[in-house]
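Researcher: Structure prediction, please.
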Amino acid sequence: MANNSAPPAGGLIAGMARPAWRMFIFACCGAVALAGITLSLAKGAMNIPVSDIAAVILGQTADAKGQVIWNIRLPRTLVGALVGLNLALAGAILQAVMKNPLADPHIIGISSGAGLAGVAVLILFPHLEYLITPVAFLGAMAAAVLIYIMAWKGGIRPIRIILAGVAVSAFLGAGISALLVFYSDRVHGALMWMVGGLSARSWPHLYIILPYSALGALLALVGAARLNVLNLGDDVARGLGLDVEATRLTMTAVAALLAASAVSVAGLLGFVGLVVPHAARLLIGSDYRFLLPAAALLGAGVVTLSDTLARTMFAPVELPVGIIMAFVGAPFFLYLLRREP
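Model: Predicted structure follows.
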């Protein structure tokens, strides 16, 4: 008699992804996000007990600790959580659309498109800073379309996506460098933005990213079922009635929107979209109806925890969170590359 209890190809953990297991994983991911947010609010030059944080948020105190929480840490923490959510969702979507486990907004050049557009606004039109997010979205979408065109040759292959992404990223990176050279007197803010960080992020930055995060997350969850069908292969997906190319284009636009909004407030923060979706996939399986929410929670937790580490590791010197993510993400990328057949 055949053994019907064997786990699917996603691995043993994925095979255990029954409803109770999924609820447990969601609870764990939520706990990571909550821990990241709590530590981000509590740790810094002034350590604040969790009880005092709760009192401040509930409006029961308005002392110096309350000023630190409301005016400095809370907006920065919420921005970091949304940046992590956006980049994790963007990475998960791109990995499905491009059929490439190494796809990530930063690695394949989409973030570079957003970065070039954002740096151009910061340097050439600093008085139009409020336009960074829509302009960055257009840059990210243009980069995605260019990568897709360069990688297409009777179909899409993972190796061509990576090579096209590296080429586009290098080209756009040269454009960013040229702007920095020609306008060397205006580069300080742009340089910090390129590294990726959350320093001095406040309520206006939260108001910038929040609507894009809400819209992008909603569109991602609505498209989860189509991503599942797309993962079955182009021929099977077409046989099931899915417009493959329209789905790819639409979901790439959603990923570009999420990545561009994150880039517009946090700069070129890399590897979140690579590491987090893989961790979520190992825990909860490859069903995008569950993978996307889990990745969103993990992304929020990873970025807020990394930002807290960046702020406190060498206090009073603060590292950009992009440096911490690069130290974690680069070895993980090499590990995935070595696993590829």
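Model: The mean pLDDT is 83.
Researcher: Thanks, that helps.
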